[in-house]
Amino acid sequence: MNTILFSKKVEVRYQAQVVVVGGGPSGFCAAVAAARAGADTLLIEEGGCAGGMATRGLVGPFMTSYDKDGKQMIIRGLFEELVNRMVMCGGAIHPEGVRAGTAFTSWIVLGHDHVTPFEPECLKIVMDEMLAEAGVRVLYHTRFVEPVVQDGTIRQIIIDSKAGLEAVSADVFIDCTGDADVAYRAGVPCEKGNEELGLIQPASLFFRIGNVRLAPLEADIVAHKDQFYRKDGVNYRSLHWRVTEAREHGDWPLQRVSIGLFRGVKEDEWFINTSRVMGVDATDNQSLTRGEIEGRKQVEIIFNFFRKYVPGCEDARLLCSASTLGIRESRHVKGLYRLMTDDLLEGKVPSDSICLASNSVDVHGRFGPLSNQYAAIRNGRWYGIPYRCLVPERIDNLLVAGRCVSAESDAAGAIRVMPPSTAMGQAAGQAAAMAVQQRLAVSDVSVSELQQKLREQGAFLEV
Asked: Which of 286, 321, 356 is the last residue of a domain?
């Protein structure tokens, strides 16, 4: 492969105490938390809005924020504030009133109690408002390029936008890119997917449909609910009988057997999570391009299926497909602690936990595009995510939050969903502000003090 040497003087255009790279659920919360804690904070996001997978990716609803028994909301803090503000605007339904086995959960029971339906457009506005109120400086349409590292410390990062290449200086950086882009390029050891098996979870392209008549759709599914079953690692759930019919008529070429459909805030609008694109490497633009194109092809097939075979969807409209492919997995950093699957399933709560969660281990496509593996907590009502998982090796002033934290692949399959990502982001933002104000390496932040500050901010922590 031919190479060239590229060199250019770059102006240090921005300076901040805390810089957050990536404005998805974790990055949004990290930025708000850092700014509210008194740190001069800059958020850098490559898209035109905050929210990431929740807005540009149309991933909805928010998965459960409750304990395993569905009795207590345990992911609170900024997540709860965000939900409450959307509820006040009519853009969300509070999870306390949303139960498993209903249209809001695609009639799934295990692990799906108390999800949160929401409107992505409402979420964009509320996030903009909260960022502004906290005093966060925001740069949308701005892409992270490279870090400048000296003696184990990131001094600046290079960013790219319509303004060209620029540099940003900060005391602490938080990587919320989902793909550990900052950490990886700074020299932090990472693993990609499940390296032991050589697998990465498949991607999906969400889409939304409207003008759906709830009554006939729900009647068809309820009439067949006793036919939900699992065989050879494959779940036969909502509308699998309609998929079989479509396949028999030559209208279903996809390797999927049932439909993931989740009712939105409005009863005629639904989120569809059915497409499955295998082998997508989210760190490779050629692979992502292939995935986006394939995802849109699958969206067209699935939408036509709804119109032709699903009761209540004869006059359905395709509202939009996601503007970015939904990525479940890419890089996992190597941090001070690696979260293990047994930690979650056994309900362990390490002493340095910065949030509690009960989300089940959810691994897609391990045995091909039809398969799913799903495992709920065996012991206790929740597990803890340690602060050490947010602290990567080798770099003194870098934290990570969201799906790229230090965890083995299957464990990441539980905590990658959005409610725990928001909680990790809030903890990272608060810790970053403490590191700046106390002039500490992020690894030296007092976890007990961090936990107390999170409790004061409404987080639920029993540690």
From this structure: 321
CATH classification of the domain holding 61: 3.50.50.60
Determine the Cα–Cα distance for residues 284 and 264; give it in Å rounded to an integer: 32
- C-alpha distances (whole Å) from 85 to each of 82, 122, 287, 298, 321 are 5, 9, 37, 34, 25
For residue 187, the tally of other CB atoms under 10 A from its CB is 15
Do 309 and 363 share a domain, yes or no? no
The helix (H) or strand (E) run that includes residue 215 is: helix 214-224
Q: What is the pLDDT of residue 463?
A: 63
85, 158: one domain: yes
- Residue 252 shares a structural domain with residue 281: yes
- Mean pLDDT across the stretch 294-303? 98
Where does 162-207 have alpha helices with state H?
181-185
User: Strands 331-333, 190-192: parallel, antiparallel or unpaired by DSSP?
Assistant: antiparallel
DSSP calls for 355-401? EEE-PPEEEESTTSTT-EEEE--SSSS-EEEEGGGGSBSS-TTEEE-
pTM: 0.98
- The DSSP letter of residue 195 is T
Q: How many domains does the chain have?
A: 2
**What is the pLDDT of the chain when averaged over all its residues?**
97
Over 90: is that where the pLDDT of 408 sits? yes
Decide if 373 is inside a domain.
Answer: yes
Instruction: Count CB atoms within 10 A of the CB of residue 251.
Output: 14
* Residue 111 belongs to some domain of the structure: no
Give the type of residue at 370: L
Q: In this structure, what token pair is assigned to residue 395?
A: 């770099």
Q: Please check whether residues 274 and 360 belong to one and the same domain.
A: no
Distance CA 309, CA 301 (A): 12
User: Same domain for 229 and 185?
Assistant: no
